[in-house]
Design goal:
Length: 325
């Protein structure tokens, strides 16, 4: 989560050799037969590994050189590995296990990790076939899943696994400012037109509302994308999440699933953060973070999935609300 950019491994190939992935997966999963399927729509290269029809695993590795990463994305493989080493394999919230983590380019030309097992289907693959009722049930189940995740306590704010050089923050206000500053630095580097200094002033002005959060809890900042959610179609239930690379200790309500929650999600989670003035201020600050991230990311990696105009409208609304507080 360092502010400064880190260099990519110089030996990272444009695409890992599929045979190398198959050999690596077979050794890690202790299976003679592993099928490898590349999944589309992910920033980091992601492969579905199957050893049977019952469940699957995921291998994730760095993207190729032509993919422009933001500062906070550089360490995603390491972050996910550290997170799953800390919390993985819990039966109560269906977190995957970290099967293998390799922080050299020796085997497939890139850092990589293998996680799983996952049972069911990736929501993005099956969503077009699901009824409105089934989608509402899955949304409710996702709310219940996130609530269980958000009950996990940490000791300090910031990275789930503290490194020797970065021990985390005692203050949520400082941790939030650090996260937002990373996005703003990327925006400023790219000369994207946004009121950076005004946003910094708003964060300082509303520090006391952020300081009301005193207990670090597990947060997946980017959780709610359909391609991240694994579901049991028959039971209409969430069975897991593919990606824990955006995990931090912080305020659970900063997760993107609270950006624009559905009624079914809210029913599953329970109380939403809109009861007090401090809660509303924090939610506007989190909208600033997520909308600014969408704007900056769209500039670095243009995508049809991102609606920059909507993100700018959300950003402007949140800034206006915070400026009037």
């Amino acid at each position: 989560m360092a502010i400064g950019k880190t260099a990519m491994a110089s030996s990272t190939p444009s695409s890992p050799d599929r045979n190398a992935i198959q050999r690596t997966a077979a050794a890690a999963l202790q299976s003679k037969s592993v099928t490898v399927e590349k999944l589309d729509g992910y920033t980091f290269r992601t492969y579905r590994l199957r050893t049977s029809e019952r469940f699957f695993y995921v291998l994730r590795c760095r993207p190729s050189f032509n993919i422009r990463l933001l500062r906070h994305e550089e360490g995603w493989i390491e972050t996910e590995a550290g997170t799953l080493q800390s919390i993985g394999g819990r039966a109560d919230i269906f977190t995957p296990r970290l099967i293998k983590y390799q922080n050299t380019t020796l085997h497939i030309g890139s850092f990589y990790l293998i996680t799983g097992p996952f049972t069911g289907s990736i929501l993005a693959d099956v969503e077009p076939t699901l009824s409105t009722h089934a989608l509402a049930s899955i949304d409710k189940s996702l709310g219940q899943y996130v609530r269980r995740l958000s009950m996990m306590p940490g000791e300090v704010f910031g990275p789930v696994r503290q490194s020797q050089g970065f021990p985390g923050f005692r203050s949520w206000a400082k941790a939030f400012a650090f996260l937002l500053e990373s996005i703003m630095r990327d925006g400023e580097d790219a000369l994207i037109s946004l009121p950076y200094d005004h946003v910094r002033d708003l964060v300082r002005r509303h520090r006391s509302s952020l300081e009301k959060i005193t207990q670090p809890k597990l947060v997946l900042l980017e959780l709610s994308a359909d391609r991240n959610v694994v579901v049991d179609v028959k039971a209409e239930q969430v069975t897991g999440l593919l990606d824990y690379s955006t995990a931090i200790w912080g305020d659970p309500f900063m997760s993107d699933c609270f950006y624009k929650p559905t009624a079914s999600f809210a029913e599953g989670f329970g109380k939403l953060p809109n009861q007090s003035a401090d809660e509303r201020i924090r939610q506007y600050l989190y909208v600033v973070y997520h909308s600014m991230l969408a704007i900056v990311r769209q500039f670095y990696r243009p995508s049809e999935d991102e609606n920059e105009m909507q993100a700018r409208r959300d950003f402007t609304t949140a800034v206006r609300q915070l400026s009037g507080q």
